[in-house]
Amino acid sequence: AQTVTQSQPEMSVQEAETVTLSCTYDTSENNYYLFWYKQPPSRQMILVIRQEAYKQQNATENRFSVNFQKAAKSFSLKISDSQLGDTAMYFCAFMKPFIQGAQKLVFGQGTRLTINP
Amino acid sequence: GAVVSQHPSRVICKSGTSVKIECRSLDFQATTMFWYRQFPKKSLMLMATSNEGSKATYEQGVEKDKFLINHASLTLSTLTVTSAHPEDSSFYICSARAPGTNEQFFGPGTRLTVL
To answer: Are A77 and A88 in contact (CB under 8 A)?
Structure first.
């Protein structure tokens, strides 16, 4: 079974700083998807960024980028120029390919990120 | 973007009663919906996968007779917590997947409190 580990329960940085959240996973699959979700105090889950394992290029979405190291099974999220609105719980998640079934998301434990003014 | 709604957003009930939570995909047809449970300051735990027109697939350790799931149409799945007890108090979140995609769109969640 796949597992996802986020080793940083909490992080705190000053506004405008860059912060990196770590995530490692364990799988025997060669192709899969990885996601970072944000859950602000409203508790609405919001997709931040996704990565397909067969793509070597790291995904980027504006201030958010990932460092995907497939051999190391590592998938960290970098937030540049952090903003107060980035304060949230961040979850790393793993999903098997579409053809292999119902595509369950396996979530990590989460990292609580606080951006301080 | 795709929108998923949940109703109610909050519910308080007495121990022993049953509570139904609805999950709707508003602007797309969802062949598959998922139900999660989230305890305070914890991660999301998948309870079951709901496929339109067929029985739900429950995760290990989730009581299917306790958490009844019905996916009667391509836009609606319901979770009924039967004979609720205080330990069932939690935050329940649904998500929906559009056909041919790998992305799940999440509802805003339902906070259940059983007294």
So the answer is: no
CB-nearest to B43 from A47, A50, A91 is A91
pLDDT tens digits, one per residue of B42-66? 999 999 998 888 889 999 999 999 9
Q: For A38-50, what is each residue's pLDDT tens digit?
A: 999 999 999 999 9
Contact yes or no for B44 and A91 at CB 8 A: yes
Give the list of residues 6+ apart from residue A77 with CB closer than 8 angstroms, or none: A20, A21, A23, A36, A48, A49, A64, A65, A66, A90, A92
Q: Is B59 helix (H, G, I), strand (E, B) or coil?
A: coil
Q: Which residue has the tokens 């190391």?
A: A72
pLDDT over 60 (residue A100) = no
